[in-house]
Every structure is written in C-alpha cells, then in structure tokens.
Design a protein that fits this description.
By secondary structure, the protein is α/β, with parallel strands linked by helices. It contains five helices and seven strands, in the order E-H-E-H-E-E-H-E-H-E-H-E. The protein has a single domain, classed as Oxidized Rhodanese, domain 1, CATH 3.40.250. The chain is 33% helix and 20% strand. A five-stranded parallel sheet has the order 1-6-5-2-4. A two-stranded antiparallel sheet has the order 3-7. Strand 5, helix 4 and strand 6 form a beta-alpha-beta unit. The longest helix has 12 residues. The chain is globular, with a radius of gyration of 12 Å. InterPro entries: GlpE_sulfurtransferase, Rhodanese-like_dom, Rhodanese-like_dom_sf.
C-alpha cells in the first residue's frame, strides 16, 4: 500500500472516507466525501490516483487496499485529517 504525506496529498484529488458527522466537523478543502460504508457502491466516483484520508489513517488504509483490488491507483494519507490539520493545511469547517 502506498502512503503519502499531507503535502504530497495536496496535489491530488482527495477522498475523505470518514462518517458524515466527522466530515461536518472539518475536512480538507476540496475533498470529495464518500463514507467508507459507501465506497463499494460509489467506487466509480473515486478518481484514479486519489489520496484517501480518514481521521488518523486506519480506515483509509483499508479503503486503499480495496481500491487496489478494484484496479484503482490510490494512496493513504499518513496521519489522516489529524496530521493534515496539524500541518496547517487548508480546512473547511472547524479543525478536528
């Protein structure tokens, strides 16, 4: 599984796989919201080469593994939204 830093992710399409209440609490600017529970049904919406992000990197790692099985190139964002926000990257909504 490929892992990337938030700085590397900033140049890619970002898919946030957290639950709706987590998304509403704050997310990376420009991210696409597809909760982990909806990935199978919405896999066609995931851009090839996307950076996958969750709160800390665990759920997104599972999603990246699934996407790889589907033939999509995706990378896990190390440290998730917590690291993204800690590094001062652009956020929409309150910082988590």
């Amino acid at each position: 599984m490929r892992e990337i830093t938030p700085a590397e992710a900033a140049a890619l399409p970002i898919v946030d796989v957290r639950e709706p209440h987590e998304w509403q609490a704050g997310h990376a600017d420009g991210a696409i919201h597809i909760p982990m529970s909806e990935i199978v049904a919405r896999v066609a919406e995931v851009p090839d080469g996307a950076a996958i992000i969750c709160r800390s990197g665990a759920r997104s790692a599972q999603v990246v593994a699934y996407l790889a099985q589907q033939g999509l190139d995706a990378a896990n964002v190390e440290g998730g939204t917590l690291r993204w926000a800690a590094e001062g990257r652009p956020m929409t909504g309150p910082v988590v």
